[in-house]
Amino acid sequence: MSVAVQLAGYSPSFKKPSETLRLRKKRARSSPRLGLPSDPPSPAGEGEPSPRGKRQRRARNPFANIGNTECRPGAGIGIGTGTGWPEESDNPLHRSLSAREWRAPAAADRTEPGSKRDAQNLQSTDAFSEHTSLPKEFPADWSVKTWVLFKSPHPFTWTGHLKASEEAKGLIQHCRSSVIDFPLHIEDPRSCTDLRCAFQQSLVYWLHPSLPWLSLFPRIGAERKMAGKNTPWSQDEELQQVLMSEWSLSFSSLYNLLRAKLCPYFYFCTYQFTVLFRAPGVAGSGVLTAVISPTTRGLREAMKNEGIMFSLPLLEDDKNGKKEKSEITDVAKDTLGPETQEENSDLKEPAGSSDDDDDDDGGMSWLKEMGVQDKIKKPDSVAIKLRKEHNVVRMDHKPESAVLVKGLHTFTLLNFLINNKSIVAGSGPQAGLPPTLLAPVAFRGATMQTLKARSINVRTQNHSGMMDSHSLEITGPIMPHSLHSLTLMLKSAQKGRFTATLLAHEPTSVFNVALKMEQRENKELSSDELRNSGLHPETLNQLMQKPTFGKSSLKHIEMNEYKYTWKL
Predict the structure, then answer these.
(1) What confidence score (pLDDT) does residue 383 get?
(2) Cα separation, 433 vs 362, whole angstroms
(3) pTM assigned to the model
(4) 312/317 Cα distance (integer angstroms)
(5) Which end of the chain is more exposed for a tag (fewer CB within 10 A), N or C?
(6) What is the rounded average pLDDT of the residues 131-154?
(7) 474 contacts 150 by C-beta, under 8 angstroms
(8) Cα separations (Å) of 42 from 13, 89, 293?
């Protein structure tokens, strides 16, 4: 017997294809139905129909198990068919998956708009959510977004034309810090009142000062947008004093909320720099922190003179290079407080090294080795000092100039910012205008504002013809909690499928830098300590994680089948 005959699936009587075809024709004439060579003989005899069913099956290819076809692509269930339905297979395990097991949900299983089950969408989850694991969240992005565009194969009709009652309920839910939980899947978002109210709730933020005819964020580089606007305080010193007095009260109120863990974070925006204040427990820190970016040598000198101790986290991260070590040492000597100088003391080279010699004589030591030092004019101490100052100044207005202030020094920073006149422009369109305060919760003197939302439905052309394209555009100062709250709703309303394109205010991207903390400052705080901060528990958990993006920010987020991917 040949080796081919011994293979599994071959009949011992198989010899030639012509003989098999002859037997097949003979059985077809003697049987009332079209039989299969591989069918086992029935108890009633070879000519009787099989009791398993009377439906006609397609004939089996007698060459199906020959070696050149047994590993053909798409031989499994539903592979290669393009339909998602199982192919007929010789494997009895494959044949057991009949079409009935692949059927679409019956009409009785689907939720109709306005039904009792639809009304209970927010009270209980359906079977789909019960058997699906929670998706991995994307990391927190501490930059302030100015524009976000969401796209989804499902329409955003639930976001538009809110009723007066829905808008009012959404605003009061924000003021009361109401937490709304959503199931993993909402069958009919448009008729879900609670979802529409929560959408309004997620768009709210608080601002001071509030001047309806001026856009008060962003402040850096906003001169062109503010040019020609009415600024009655610019030439009125008494009015400027009133504005600054009210602003000081609002700033102090917001800081006290932060220290009491009733506000998770807020932004302080001037025409030159932005400060992000974060409460203890936020961003992986056990103490209150403030990050300032960008800074200049003059600002750092002024902070040093006020006794504010700070560090440069981005330069400390790059301390492996000789160039960066030199820059940090120069900055520490000229601008940092004593505590930070001690932290950076390990970056200095040992005494007597060639690097120190080069610094002392302006890099002339190599000329001595060649014996030509007398023919070259040695730079004086003034030139050496100017070169060092250049290393310090050239990082001004750049992300590397970001400054971190921790603990009680943030209170000293508060007083410094209130009393420092340089935080207010002396000329130009922003002259006399106090810095902008942005916060997720209410504070003294703040005005409630809402982000602008617009849903767009268009038809676009693709390779298969015309298709509907659905998008949702959000504009305004979009803070981290708002972005996460929106994605929580979209996850449920858009059935786990959407993308987001994000545009950040670039000077705030550096707020994603990891905070270097001492051991006593790294104590972990539970979210219970910040439960009164007004944020959704899932949003709060995200913001408590350590930043991971460095000086970059999110540019694209995609959710597919309830799983996140993102790009910087």
Answers:
(1) 55
(2) 46
(3) 0.68
(4) 9
(5) N
(6) 81
(7) yes
(8) 20, 21, 84
